[in-house]
Protein 1
Amino acid sequence: MNKFGLILAKTYIDKFKSKSFLLTTILFIAAIMVGANLSTIMDQFGRGGEAEDEWKIAVKDEEGTVAGALEQQILLVNDQISINQVTGPFDEVEQQVIDGQYDALLTVTLKESGKIESVYFSESLTSSDVSNDLQLTLQTIQSNLAANKLNLSADELATLNMPVTFKQDSFSETAKSEAELSEARGLVYIMIFVIYISVLLYSMMIATEVAAEKSSRVMEILVSSVPPIQQIFAKILGVGLLGLTQLSIWGIVGYASLQFNRDQMQGGIYEFFGFSSSSIETFVFGLIFFLLGYFLFATLAAFLGSLVSRTEDLQQMLMPVTLLIGIGTFLAFYGIADPTATFVTIASFIPFFSPLVMFTRVGMLNVPIWEPITAIVLTFITIVLLGWFGARVYRGGVLMYGNGSSFKDLRKALMITKKE
Amino acid sequence: MTLRIEKVTKRLGESVAVDNLSLTIPEKSMFGFLGANGAGKTTTFRMVLGLINASSGSITWNGKPIGYHNSHEVGYLPEERGLYPKMKVKDQVVYLARLRGMEKKKAEQELIYWLERFNVPEYENKRVEELSKGNQQKIQFIAAILHKPSLLILDEPFSGLDPLNVELLKDAVRDIHKKGTTTVFSSHRMEHVEELCESVCIVHKGSPVVHGGIREIKRSFGKKNLLINAEFDLTYLKGFPGVVKVKERMDGVTLQIENEGVSQEILKEINAKGFIRQFSLEEPSLNDIFIEKVGASFE
């Protein structure tokens, strides 16, 4: 095996066997499992929990017409609510609610004009579900009563209650249709998050590795055996492959658990996130931009890591990396909300932001293909330049020891290897 | 296969780490590279290895500059020892040897030989951080020589070892040298250099002050040491013509004299004064030469 392969294999195997790799992999698998079963779990805690004790409401209605209708119609909206007509004086009923005989009290008055006036009393006003359902039902009853007064037929009544068809569309050609957007949003959202976490995580891994080799002083032997540029890229590729391994594991687990929960996938949270028909295009761009982002920041992290003498100083040195990824992610999340904003468009071409921001635009808009390609090419050029520059810094940096961790060291590192 | 350092200068900003250094180290020789702390030894070694570029001048091994293309021919023991603390001895040494172009099987066999030779075969599967500092150094040494380099550079190979282990390592260095390896090493311990090397170079502030075979250096130094042990006070000899320095010892004095002739004058002077137990004329030690040439106040 050649030297490059040796370092690559060692990096990959060491990291694969490390506890942190095992831990993050398992934690994320757990998170994916929870996420995939979210609706089941929410059912357990939400409606499932209330199933046993239904919401008993005392209804005080002088005439009784509204209360009767309410008793029947509420079942169509929420079968957990039970309506009990009471006739006693207000104080007496109030006491019954306080004693826990009823959960709430609703007073209903039908006015001359056909308007229903209603007040809802309860010990706590936390459960808005119930009051919303009551309000909705009362609204329907009021409309029906009004319709009865006008002697409308059943068909006419149906027309009256017909829901509006409301669709969003855009004149802009670059915009995706509403259906496409809601489909894209979820995938883009999740993938930005994955890109952010993994690029940050793996870049840190590289920098830590370099700093550890340097602080244990094994670096001087390594650098006398293998050219720095080979070392850097063997490490980056090794950790990159590790990252792909981890992402594949997560991907397979995620896909499997979605397949497993296919029955529950209809509607609800899944439709909002647009998983029902994941866009292959978005996914492919996501992978490309993940790789670009990773190589860019890993190269930066590797040569910054070569400048510190102790792993303790690493965090400070890696500030630019954390900051750039942070800003990129912020812009990307902003871009999900408003993908056509000018500064989002501009940022999508700036190499350090484009992996995240251009990906957002590709995912959210129908951008012309030359735009992502330009961004990819620009980022690629930046990686090559950074790699070339980084290898020079690395070569000097790994031989330099001191308490400094400032950018002054950068000049010094370049000077050590330079011919004057 | 000669290592040639020609008019090499290394500037680091304002300061000059190595100043116009020229050395020729013939094939299969054992060469001592001496200097005070910060004299530029490590910088020179790094330039020889091609880790850093010289500001001017050239360094060639067998007519070619040393680089990654011939890194398998070169062995290096850096002054700052460093191994992967969490890695097992075997994995580590084999990995480093493979990076120097050695085959895995061969490296494993050689490692067993060396571990046994250094009386530590049980360390094969231990993690480096579990070993004592001295034992880590043995492992580091093995890592530097396992791939049978033809040029071996040892930066302070014996520092931090107990006398038994120093002997063990010295024997190993001698054996490797006998098998035809050109060896360059630096040390602060002059007696090690005197014992092992044919020729030396003493550098001071980046430039060589003494260079050549040890015997010639001693001869050309001129000054001799005179050891006297007598039953009367000898410190008055401080002012005697030709005496450079007087060093008192428990059992007498050591005088540094300008030349052999002075010793006879002194003998005449003290002969009648009383009983003389010892009177011997000795070659100057490398230590004396170093102190004289480098001028540091090590006494």
Protein 2
Amino acid sequence: MKRRPTFLISVLCFGFAFFYVPILSMIVYSFNNSRLATVWGGFSTKWYAALWHNPQVGEALKLSLEIAILSSTSATILGTMAGIALARFKQFRGRVLFSGLVTAPLIMPEVITGISSLIFFILMAEFVGWPASRGFTTVTLAHITFSMVFVTTVVQSRMLSADRAIEEAAMDLGSRPWQVMKDVTLPVISPAILSGWLLAFTISMDDVVITNFTTGPGTTTLPILIWSKVKLGVTPDVNALATLTVLVVGVIVFAVGFVMNRSEKRRELERRLAYQANE
Amino acid sequence: MASATRLYHWFNRRGWSDIVIVAPYVWLLVFFLVPFVIVLAMSFATRTPTAPPFGYGGDNPLLNTAGYARLIGDALYFRAFITSLLNAAVAMVLCLAIGYPMALGLTKIEPGWRNILLMLVILPFWTSFLLRVYAWMGLMGSNSWFNTLLTEGWNWAVPQDWAVHSIPMMHTNFAVVLVMVYTYLPFMILPLYANLERLDPTLDEAAMDLGTRPFGVFWDITLPQSIPGIIAGGMLVFIPAAGDLVIPTLVGDASSPMIGRVISDEFASARDWPMASSVAVALLFLMVGPMMIYSHYQARAEHREAPK
């Protein structure tokens, strides 16, 4: 006999309504014919057409994608290294500082990271001469720095839960340390590396505050473009842009979730078959 | 040739492990620690009309504490800190009040549906933060359907003298808290769900068999075991909310700004780098407590997950 948790179910319904009513409202109003963004004036797709014909949007999207791909790939390499280092090497000089450096950017308020990066880059330009001006390079460097620690967190926790016996077996069979890394460890943690990359990519695509501090004239990423529009108020073309974003992200998240769910089920099945074969 | 062989031997012996440690270490030292140390030093500098606008001079050239003195003396900064901490604390409590039953509800739902619902919790997290704030700007405006609905409800419920044309929601602390709850709620639900999902259901059943009422089971068994999840979720909401810049700029009250906005304005509009740095350092000091609590519980959670 089990009581149905009526209260919990109703809070869940309220919660999901709370999550999705604003988004649905934004989607509905992106098809609004009226120039006033909050008053309904009939159905129209003209804001999508306006978006399509606005060259700024395309350029900003392209720039955002370039920065996100470059920074998330670099962040994944550096972050994976840090995750492996923290999970495998229990003692090395400066480990305490290192693990502090890896945690701090995760919880540092973005304004502080932004302002310190900006001051750093201005002083670098003044006294070192590189990066000479603020723009693509400085934004990418800042994005690598604050997104690599997210990769580290994901990789480190996968490393800690992975079975070390396989690595030890490879060592016993005479593999060199880097061969163990290449042939055993990296394949085992590859799902974590992939999700770390996705996380870093999304963080970079989404960032406003740190980009706003580290960017310069002429380097307008998509979030910065939206930020400058939204500061002036609600406009229908941003509704259209938001709808497209939600659509693209929704499809990707569901597709990735579906694929991961299926591959997990398949692995589970293979594991069970392997056990049966052994018995 | 010989050096190439030596390099190969060095690499095999310990080179790869050195690289794995040193590369990310140096990166974080240069691009994270050094900038932060600069801000720390900047907070003790003096503002000058030069470019870059700071210098070291006066009675105490390297330790000019004027910025910190102004921080305590000037009511603007004190009020900004109080507003930030209050808004973040209220948002955290509301997130807990909504997020806890949601997380608990998710654990009671059959696994097939649960995965879909979990994905629906995560989905807003992957879409743009800025656009989620923006969605509420559309709802809160004075002639939006949502505001009209609320206004009609209010006018129907209260005596006629109190009737209003529209509820002023935009540019208030209420708007800030509402949008904070909206944007940070997934950060509360996900760690709580991870915590609650691991609890042993047989304990609940044992308590039920011994005659405990459902609320008693929750109060005596579920709640005490979920405290690490509550703390992790609470800090994940509180820390970013207190230092947030986007929400207060877009929907906040400009006459009582939050601390993130003060830092940004000091820096960009007033061009007072030392003052902006002092405020930033002070904010960080306030956040050190919550950060330590968070990483303490996080480290314990990771320790539990790691195989013995």
